[in-house]
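User: For a benchmark we're assembling, each entry needs the component sequences followed by a predicted structure for the full assembly. Here are entry 17's components. Please fill in the structure.
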Amino acid sequence: MPQMRYREALRLALREEMQADENVFLMGEDIGVFQGAFKVTQGLLQEFGEKRVRDTPISENTIVGMGVGAAMTGLRPVVEIMTVNFSLLALDQIVNCAASIRYMFGAQVSVPMVIRMPQGAGHQLGPTHSHSFEALYLHVPGLLVAVPSTAADAHGLLKAAIRDDNPVIFIEHETLYGRRGEVPENAEPINFGEAVVRREGSDVTIIGISRMAETALKGAEQLAAEHAIESEVIDPRTLRPLDLDTILESVRKTNRAVIVEEGWPHGGVGANMAALIQEQAFDWLDAPVARVAGGDVPMPYSKPLEQAAFPHEEHVVSAALSTFRDL
Amino acid sequence: MASDVLMPRLSDSMEEGTVLKWLVEAGGEVSRGQPLVEIETDKANMTYEADSDGVLLEVLAQAGDTLPIGEPIARIGQAGEASSSAAADAEGGAEPGENGGPGRDGAPEVGADAGPGQQQAHADAAPVPEPAATAVSAAAPEPPPPEAAGGNGRIKASPVARRVAGELGVELAQLEGTGPGGRILKADVEAAAIRGPVPHEEGSQEATDEPPREAIPPDVVTAPGVSAAPETGAKGEVTVQELTRLQRTVSRRMAESKATVPDFSLELDVDMTLCIELRDRLKEQVERAPSYNDMVVKAAALALREHPRVNGGYRDGRFELYSKVNVGVAVAARDALVVPVVPDADQKSLGEISRQARRLIERVRDGEITPPELSGGTFTVSNLGMYGIERFTAIINTPQAAILTVGALEKKATVDERGRVVARDMLTLTLVCDHRILYGADGAQFLARVRELLERPLSLAL
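Assistant: Structure for entry 17:
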């Protein structure tokens, strides 16, 4: 099975879908001549030409707005917002248009577009450039939300996102772009709403979102090595739709759940998921659902403070332990 | 906002009042000065008027209820307002706009604090950042502080522990939780289910009436569990054995007896010469002659009939005297102690007692004894003579008044009437008595009577 980086897997998905469907095209800042801020689109301008790989002005609301319009006319735009931070400038187009139009017009038109953007902290970019916004987009009905954490998932989910007739918020992670992983030859799209169990265990269920899927897995290994606790680690892969069944099945087995996300705690993905778990599996819980989240602060610039403000495996370990005993 | 209507002080000497009649129905509108309720004081019946306009939201004291002055008897508020409990909660919690800061901030934080990321939560809605050191070291999950375990008396158990306890029939109140803050976890319930139910606490009529051993067939109670992981230490390898249900019952009841019964022992030697003669003669008649123990049982049964308190028990500050004389015979079973009962032993012939006792003992040893055969004992005889034990004391099988122990039948040097030292076949009987029901003289008279019957054993053969 070919090994490739997460960014290369994304590029492969884009290329395959562009080859398969001439309606698929790309728009974004610096994605063509500059080959992409994170080099995801490297080589695609040369391969598909300026008509299908379009560099845009620095105007996010316009980029998304053009994408919405193109999608309404039957094209399948994949727009890249350089980072999730800049998507705030396009919120009107994303929420009021992309998410709503199909509903406003009684399904006479659809908006089959993908909005790709990386997120994440850890690069000393301060409060304005370090966001994790999956919770923000999960909040909006009408949007699908994907949060791939491996090369294979990045590939398979992006293919599925492009083929889907709903607008998809496709959240990548800056730290994951360089991660290598196996991507099967001729891999099929990965269905939205199918979680994957990364590690089987019987003692506690740990749900890691986006990059935190990786952190959750490391925490699980530490729990096994140092505390003889076998964790079941689940990566939901898409938050809307959410594969709650897989999560509940695991929680019914382990009776404990820990949710790990990089974003803020209030109104976070974990807050929502904890509510769902207790609503559906209350009588199976041995402890309150534990959440590990980023600090409830604008991201500090200082490196030590920044590191302290988003979760690492030790936080996963102590949160999991807190479901067993007093710490 | 709703306000309480309190039991009014309608006279100087009034301490409490009785609601006679509500003049407005719950839900009805009232205006200030309108007659609201008739109240009986120590002096007279008086009509009390509403002191505010609004709706009678809730009547807290019904007609006939007597309450001290100052106690709420009703609530008056605006139509559609929450009634007392909800209103009280709202007051205790957040009243947005009125209480401002702490109240409003408190509400959302409860949820956030329940999980890790707790420290971040402190910043909550306010845009003012917390001091960096606190706010930023954020991601570390801190468990919520342990909840007060007592207070409302609710048992702290996880939802799944409650469900599993219900399924397995485990009483949560009996368990000690190993989870955070002492929470009872599923594993605690499952472990308790494996150990078996904790026996009923003493005090319930049923539990003390019938000795707990009877609930457990001996075949179930043998075979103790051995734990998998032996510890090692200065004593070498330690094999930990879990108690069977019967063993746990026995240990608890014995400890309880020893801890609560003020016991004393009386001892005397019985000359068994004539019993031996009797038995030798009976052997000529029947294949299986009664044992000496059977004779002791018979003698005790006859003496018990004459000494009702010995055939009784002390319980809850009272004497209980039993009309039947049911003598239990302690039998060592596999890994357990079982006391099958010879009912109506005073009514039975020595031969009947003998046959029945033998059958019971066999059934115990074969593990076939059933609970009815173990129940209803009013007195106990325990015999270790076959092991050469000369004399011993035993622990009273509460609530019975006494237990009689039988030592070995041995030739001993005794002094006869003429002052000569002669060898006689002697048996030592020890009566352990509960001093709360049997005093020294009571026990002594009973024991002397047993000796008298054994030394003139023809009366046993009647």
